[in-house]
Design goal:
This protein is mainly beta. Helix content is 9%, strand content 31%. The N and C termini lie far apart (77 Å). The structure holds magnesium ion (MG).
Length: 258
């Protein structure tokens, strides 16, 4: 075999290339091989204890569990006026809407509600109430097992925005649950929303919203828009004032700040 200049050049280049690869190749690092490197130990998550039926976590803030509405006030000021019958808050005629005294931002919210078994009326006039997060973003409460209305206005809808993905409603007279994970919107100094609110909702244990983006403050007419507000705002429960004979009822309302 004749050794040419070209052959020597190729040989030299190849040798240099292989050497450089070896130079930069990662040698097995003992530290990287150690599974403990990616373990997080501190801080430990706080221990939280469910308390049996109703699964009230030990760190939950109880907003209502009978016998009073001390955590609430009337939405127009003064004492909350909903009557409490056997530990159940009743959205009675002319008793106004209620709002929490305390303000909340990102949260896990649990609410139990039922429609009166002898409900009358149709559509939006059939057991209308609502869980209004931060006083602006409504998860609709309505009789939707039997009655139909516009889908983004039925029970579980983010009112006039997103219909529930499925209708998980129970019959009138049966207790129903909302388990809501809410992420409050963030605004910049100019008052523009920079991170819209998001919500995930379990309705009777069924996901009906999966990290849905909220488009802005609830609007009955026109498209919703954001208006700047505090990171934490009170929770509002609606008295729609058209359920006088058959009020919606509430019990076991609790919240965890996230
Ligand atoms: Mg409503």
């Amino acid at each position: 075999m004749k050794i040419t200049k070209e052959y020597l050049l190729v040989l030299l280049t190849s040798t240099l290339l292989i050497s450089s690869i070896n130079l930069f190749a990662q040698k097995p690092d003992k530290e990287q091989q150690n599974p403990a490197t990616t373990e997080t130990w501190e801080p430990f998550p706080e221990k939280v204890f469910p308390e049996g039926t109703g699964s009230l976590p030990s760190d939950a803030i109880v907003l209502f569990n009978g016998p009073n509405l001390n955590a609430w006030e009337d939405a127009k000021g003064g004492k909350a006026r909903w009557p409490i019958i056997d530990g159940i808050a009743v959205v009675a005629s002319d008793s106004g809407s209620i709002v929490t005294k305390r303000a909340f931002g990102d949260c896990q919210l649990h609410v139990e509600w039922r429609i009166a078994p002898d409900i009358t009326g149709e559509g939006q006039f059939r057991g209308n109430s609502g869980i209004i997060l931060q006083g602006r973003y409504e998860i609709q409460v309505l009789e939707s097992f039997e009655s139909q209305t516009y889908s983004n206005g039925q029970a579980g809808a983010i009112y006039k925005q997103h219909p529930p993905m499925v209708n998980a409603s129970k019959k009138p007279g049966e207790w129903q649950t909302y388990d809501i994970n809410f992420i409050a919107p963030r605004f910049n100094e100019k008052g523009n929303v920079v991170i819209p609110a998001r919500v995930t909702v379990l309705y009777n244990g069924v996901f009906i919203h999966n990290n849905a983006e909220i488009w802005g403050t609830e609007a009955f007419v026109g498209m919703p828009q954001y208006g700047m507000h505090n990171l934490k705002e009170p929770l509002f429960i609606q008295n729609h004032s058209n359920n006088h004979k058959n009020p919606v009822q509430y019990k076991n309302i609790w919240i965890r700040e996230l």
